[in-house]
Amino acid sequence: MDHVTLLLQRLEQIGASLAEMGKAYALLGLGSVGESRDRLDQYSDLDFFVIARPGYKRELIADLSWLSRIAPLGYAFLNSADGYKALYEDGVFCEFAVFEPDEMSAIPFAPGRIVWSAPDFDPRLAIPSPKFIAPKEHGTEWLIGEALTNLYVGLGRYRRGEKLSGAYFIQSFALARIVDLADRIETPQAGERDRFMGERRFEQRHPLIAAELSEMLGGYDRTIESARAILAFLERHFPINPHLRDAIRALL
Questions:
Q1: Is the Cα torsion angle 242, 170, 197, 80 positive or negative in sign?
Q2: What is d(CA 110, CA 129) in angstroms, rounded to the nearest whole number?
Q3: pLDDT on residue 31
Q4: Which CATH fold would you assign to the domain 3-133?
Q5: SS3 label, residue 67
Q6: What's the confidence (pLDDT) of residue 193?
Q7: Domain-wise residue ranges, the chain
């Protein structure tokens, strides 16, 4: 059985297991096993929410027999108060959370797919709160300011000898703002935009910018070169405050 078929089958089996236990209202598939099944491939995993009946959330988190009776679990890690990351012995990786109905309005998630639901389930619970459907986007000026000031602070830390902190500020924090600015620089190509993680499918959406990433993300021993490439990129595409630009250049 190929991996994609196994994933979809396993998700259906999880739904059937929950139905048999009678302690949940629904199983909601997310990401590539939700509304974006065209993205499924051999590297995909299972992302899902279990909507528990009131009073059963803690039990479903404490006892994973509803998962392990389908197939043996090789590893399971409680990575939050609400759920796990788990790996079946046959290679199916899961990331999931369990919520009760009164929690759903406060949970940020992209629209998903109801894989299984009990007859008395209210499907409105599977619809994300409007405040999470379109997360607030920062303005261009704010993104540029954050990128530049992260370069400045990161270079100062690097020059002080805090190489790891400097690398974080430049190759993580500043670079993240380049990712946020990408739609305003290069027309997005094929590839679904992730509402919460802009780096997902970045190479498919922004191939021209992606071709420059190796210069901006040089690694621990190339922080200075990375900062220089990020500054040059910003200067090519946006007007830059000359005082801050010169301060960054001095540290370079």
A1: negative
A2: 10
A3: 84
A4: Beta Polymerase; domain 2 (3.30.460)
A5: helix
A6: 60
A7: 3-133, 140-251
